[in-house]
């Protein structure tokens, strides 16, 4: 079946699983006897994972239900529900089964779909005992929303729904296509109003934001890498910069690090299997003014990402008062070892 574009959001409710005991039949015998306290449902649009949530009671308690609000902008043929069970003998989760809801004209038209769906194995073959999942879903096309394409120009637009913070005026978002670009990099990208895209330098902006912070920094590489564009104090590493801000300028610096779930003892020491460098970082900032906090996780998947820096910054209008704004660098970049992806967002708000 050809994929359809789902751009908008999907309201999904999972009510219960019928014949749930049959889902363990395909697991190894040693896994079947392990008592598990956590079940999960992951929702995919074809191969794209959209959401994953612990939903133990949906399987164990027929009267419970779980609701999901799925934002999407994907071409897909199926909305897939993958049921999983956590186990603690083997790290991670065991897949119990898959349920497929084909995207059809009824879904595209925004009709409510309420049905029992067969749960099948990874090869889409029936599972003995015929387990089923009861789901209800409804797709809401973005183009049918009254504020589609109006944005903040519409005086009645209250902001993106279901977000933690309400929309505010005076905010700014900068999109980075890379962490660093050369001076001769000038792609011809025309923006609204006839303006031309001007590349931004993420590393340098992060350095400036940290260096100019007065009150707090929430987050061993050098941020300034281009010898042709030197900055005062730019030859120090990120760790040295954070120590300096905490000690000399009295800035509150807090680092939140993934705590490695797998530690292997090697000659009286431990090595990190997941390479989060949590212990090394904690030791580096030991007995300094930098607060280094290890954040435990409830699984051992290889999904650690260091993706956010939050600092206070001066107001953009040149206001020299004591008022400050919050600036955040959010996106796919790893400040620990310099690994990067191509999307990074710099946002600020008063």
Automatic annotation (TrEMBL):
Keyword match DNA damage: no
Pfam family of the protein (one): PLDc
Domain PLD phosphodiesterase intervals: 300-339
Cofactor(s) listed: Ca(2+)
PROSITE patterns tied to this protein: C2, PLD
Annotated ranges, domain C2: 1-117
Keywords: Hydrolase, Lipid degradation, Lipid metabolism, Repeat
Catalytic activity field: a 1,2-diacyl-sn-glycero-3-phosphocholine + H2O = a 1,2-diacyl-sn-glycero-3-phosphate + choline + H(+)
SUPFAM superfamilies: C2 domain (Calcium/lipid-binding domain, CaLB), Phospholipase D/nuclease
InterPro entries according to UniProt: C2_dom, C2_domain_sf, PLipase_D/transphosphatidylase, PLipase_D_fam
Keyword Magnesium applies: no
EC number(s) recorded for this UniProt protein: 3.1.4.4
Family under the similarity heading: Belongs to the phospholipase D family. C2-PLD subfamily.
Protein name: Phospholipase D alpha 1
